[in-house]
Amino acid sequence: MEEAAYIWMDGELVPWGAAKVHVLSHALHYGTAVLEGTRAFETPDGPAVFRLDEHLERLRLSARIIGLPLPYTLDELRAATLETVAANGQPSCYIRHLAHRGYGEMGIAARDCPTVVSIASWSWGALLGTGVRLMTSSWRRNDHTAVPTAAKATGPYLNSVLAKAEALDAGYDEAVLLNAAGFVSECTGANLFVVRDGELATPPRSAGALDGITQDTVERLAADLGLQVVRRDLLRTDLYAADEVFLCGTAAGIVPVSSVDRRELGGRGPVTGKLADAYDTAVHGRDPRYRHWLTPVTT
């Protein structure tokens, strides 16, 4: 990760190395934080943040779900995001929004701890390479009756950390997690699509999958390409029997899966290719139909 010049923290830009939190911050001990991952892309009119308003709205909803007060309006966070990217002079970058319970008092119910909000941006390539080797993790996805899977919160991400480590240790690139009922949920940091007989299918929120913004983007692009797409429960064997499987997420983009549990799929297929090309065109501002998804960064 390449460090940038500034990080926005509670209303001001501070040098990257000075963006610090107290060791007794509540979120560090109990996972009381919500986050967003967003990207800015190069476009013919300069850098622009892709679907920024949707990401900030999800941040707001995540904070509401876990009972975390958010001390800034969405308009303020929008302006702060653009200010951060502009100050760092980045033509393209990954953006991390974080709101966490800070230092104030210890104990699980420490609701008097202030909410600290930060926005960082840095140059970061695609999270995964082309042709992901996927394995089914022995860890099950968090159950929505135990933790709120609809919130993009930091605490539940330990589930992803464990599954990712298991996959890497076993010689794979990424893990797919099943839920408690045995249905496919999602990967450690990306949603998943299966292509079979021309239909695209992706797990629903009821499977424990995060309602992904890139997932929604893929569904909209697919509709415009005349492709049928549904959200439905998927079995592990549906991955094996698929014509194509691909992952999608802000950090990953659209990435073809080359194998699942050592069952070869062949990598990027025609449907994945069409969607990946359409996505690349949209995020870089080359298709006027999707310009409303781009928020320009003005210097």
From TrEMBL:
Cofactor(s) needed by this chain: pyridoxal 5'-phosphate
Q: Does the keyword GTP-binding apply?
A: no
List the catalysed reactions: L-leucine + 2-oxoglutarate = 4-methyl-2-oxopentanoate + L-glutamate; L-valine + 2-oxoglutarate = 3-methyl-2-oxobutanoate + L-glutamate; L-isoleucine + 2-oxoglutarate = (S)-3-methyl-2-oxopentanoate + L-glutamate
Q: Name one GO biological process term.
A: isoleucine biosynthetic process
Lineage: superkingdom:
Bacteria
Q: Please name the top-level EC class of this enzyme.
A: transferase
Enzyme Commission no: 2.6.1.42
PANTHER family per record: AMINO-ACID AMINOTRANSFERASE (PTHR42743), AMINODEOXYCHORISMATE LYASE (PTHR42743:SF11)
What this chain does, per the entry, is described as:
Acts on leucine, isoleucine and valine.
Q: Give the family from UniProt.
A: Belongs to the class-IV pyridoxal-phosphate-dependent aminotransferase family.
Instruction: Return the protein name.
Output: Branched-chain-amino-acid aminotransferase
The organism named in the record is: Nonomuraea zeae
Q: What broad taxonomic lineage does this protein's source fall under?
A: Bacteria, Bacillati, Actinomycetota, Actinomycetes, Streptosporangiales
Q: Which gene encodes it?
A: ilvE
